[in-house]
Amino acid sequence: VAYGLTCLELEAGDSGIRSAVSVQGSLAMFAIWRWGSEEQKERWLPAMHSGEAIGCFGLTEPDAGSDPGTMRTHARRDGSDWILNGAKMWITNGTIADLAIVWARTDDGEIRGFIVEKGMPGFSAPEIHKKISLRASVTSELVLADVRVPEASMLPGASSLRGPLSCLNEARYGIVWGAVGAGRACFEEALSY
């Protein structure tokens, strides 16, 4: 309830701020906390908690939209590493993120999550401009062109759509409270007018 009330008040101020908070905590941090290794948790969660590291969540794709079952982003093994290729779209925090939780389909059909760090060769996050709404929210595309990530960057606990969908369920809780905050703010503004 405390988290919900926080999201309500943040979105009453600006929907983009609540969006950034939800992505950081309910998507990126939750993915590591729920599906990550102990080493990944120790490395990333304290820095993300303090705001020293910003995360984003790469699931939505240009051609798949909100249907993650048709994702085209691909991960193939190369020795002990993984090579990622694909694109993600409408990614909150993407351009400013230090790490991206990227979901990809492997050769054997599994859906795996990977921690892709800013600056990895082949990884870029161009910002999307001229949006009609949520302009205070940094929204990006994620481009993965032969991005090599070590085995230690794969989230070991997730091997199906259950991984990313559980993260979306976490985020929906704050979003619903946020919608109430936006509605209240609109009502108060109309009443004042």
Keywords:
alpha/beta; 193 residues
Order of helices and strands: HHHEEEEEEEH
Structural class: alpha/beta
The dominant shape is globular
What does the main sheet amount to? 7 strands, mixed
- Overall mean pLDDT score? 95
**Rg over alpha carbons:** 17 Å
Pick out the low-confidence regions: none
| Proportion of residues in helical segments | 25-40%
Strand count? 7
How big a fraction of the residues is strand? Answer: 25-35%
Distance between the termini: 31 Å
Describe the protein.
This protein has 193 residues and is α/β, with parallel strands linked by helices. It is 40% helix and 26% strand. It is built from 4 helices and 7 strands; from the N terminus they run H-H-H-E-E-E-E-E-E-E-H. Strands 1, 2, 3, 4, 5, 6 and 7 form a 7-stranded mixed beta sheet that branches. Strand 4 and strand 5 (111-117) form a beta hairpin. The two termini are 31 Å apart. The mean pLDDT is 95.
